[in-house]
Amino acid sequence: MDVDCEGCAGCCVDWRPLTDHPSDHERRGPHEPLDDIYNLAPLTRTEVRQFCDAGYGDALIPRLWTVPETVDGAVVVDGRRLAALGGQPTFFVGLRKTPKPVAPVGTDAERWLRSCVFLDPTTLQCRIHGGGLYPSECADYPGHNLLLERETECERVEAAFDGERLLDDEPPESVGGLLLGPQALGEKVFVHPEPDALAGIASRAAAGTLTRADRAEFAGWAAGSVPGTTEHSERRYEEYRDAVLSADSWVTGAVETWTAWASGEGEDAPDAEAAERVEDQAGAPGTPGWDAVE
Fold it and tell me: Could you give the CA distance from residue 187 to residue 10 in angstroms, rounded to a whole number?
């Protein structure tokens, strides 16, 4: 794929406050995200484990879905009809978003916008790009969209801000498996075996106020999932839940600092170089800059 990512980060930033015609593509169909996280890239079971093993369990966050009355099989928690399988709520696990001072999608002034925790606000590059933790969903993007003939984020950015981002619309042969349908179960779509334990958590997920213990619960069940089934390894669940509870990477401090510092979404923000104090000096991996990218 040939894409122009320099100065964009449209996949990694919630740029909707910058336009009068924001995309609502994640909230279509009978299953709507319970949260309002933009472009949450789902991780595989193996990737959830890898992030936890690397000490980045504090970077993970779950997504639940709601369904209308016309859809059978839902589980009601906190007054919300959650999508479920066999009475067990279904969920994804992705990477947390936090407000950061960024100037994405070709804009020239920093604004407070929710961004992936691994996005360098200064270079607008991913801090884990090309490494062992780089999610397959991100590495393959926008290949899956092109294979399914669905609009890409590149095209949404083009429509909202002009310019060319998607320079080649032919999906590459190297794009990995889509994990759609039954093959996704236990690999990318997980189930929570204890719906009663979600009382209170569902409300916090909708409000964007999940606690570390909440996030650890979902990461543990995802990591303990048995592929192709709704079964779990209790030992793996406990191991990876505890890994999230004990994680203390630079991500935790960065999210706390940015959240406390940020004003309203889309409002003016300080120069992105402030990230050096918040992230770089706290131990965040560096990025090469665009001159190093061929």
Answer: 26
Q: Whole-prediction pTM value? A: 0.94
Q: Which two tokens stand for residue 269?
A: 């923000």
Q: Are the C-beta atoms of residues 127 and 275 closer than 8 Å to each other?
A: no
Number of domains in the chain: 1
Which among 82, 80, 122 is positioned nearest to 286, based on CA atoms?
A: 122
CA–CA dist 131, 117 (Å, integer): 16
Instruction: Name the phi and psi angles at 40, rounded to 5.
Output: -75, 115
**Residue 8 falls inside a structural domain:** no
> In whole angstroms, what is the distance from residue 107 CA to residue 52 CA?
35
Is 60:89 a contact under the CB 8 Å cutoff? no
Instruction: Provide the domain limits for residue 106.
Output: 16-284
| pLDDT tens string 117-164 | 999 999 999 999 989 999 999 998 888 788 778 889 999 999 999 889
